[in-house]
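Q: Sequence in, structure out?
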Amino acid sequence: MDRSRALELLRQVSSGALTPDEAVQRLAMAPFESLEFATVDHHRALRQGYPEVIYAEGKTPAQVVAIAERTLAHGGSALATRTDAATRQAMLARFPEAVANDVARTVRVGAVAPKAKGRGTILIVTAGTSDLPVAEEAAESALAMGNIVGRLNDVGVAGLHRLLANGGALQSASVVIVVAGMDGALPSVVGGLVACPVIAVPTSVGYGASLGGLAALFTMLNSCAAGVTVVNIDNGFGAAAAATRIVARDSAQP
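A: Exactly. Output:
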């Protein structure tokens, strides 16, 4: 159940179309649902603005489809992350209208969150093409959560002029998500150029001394630029969720 459905339920009670007891019965079925392999939180959208997201890694295609079916039945939308090819194929077979992104390894069905009207842009910046899987996970997650999303790809510090040539896009963004591996220096540069929040995402891209993303993570955590925050290695979804809360709060201000 999301906010719009809860409001409609209250309007029906107010108008007399629904009795309070009937409303309680509907609400009693809404909080969560126990399946054989999962307990689905149907009140996530009501509390946080978007439904529980399905982390597909470690789940079978049939399990992901089943969870998506129950999520859609209660909220009208679903997002699955870290899917494999078989899971994406199964989701598309069950939901032909779904949007699958092979690079991001995501599948989204329906409009997960409030519309983007009144919200600022979440700009996703990548240091290199190899960072795209994580960046696209962030983009698809942000889109599923009802945001306006911009992309600025392959503008790492090895060719800084590429970033500086896009100053207008940087300055107009409400939140910038910066995705980088190897030395992880790009978020500090972006943080020194913009006034909006910067969310840094270290990736596991790089040669041996990158230590699977730890080098980029430590660089970002030690950023000298004010206003840079950091999420976990390869966590594009987490960055999108944080950015969504920022722009949603900003758009709600009088």
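The mean pLDDT is 87.
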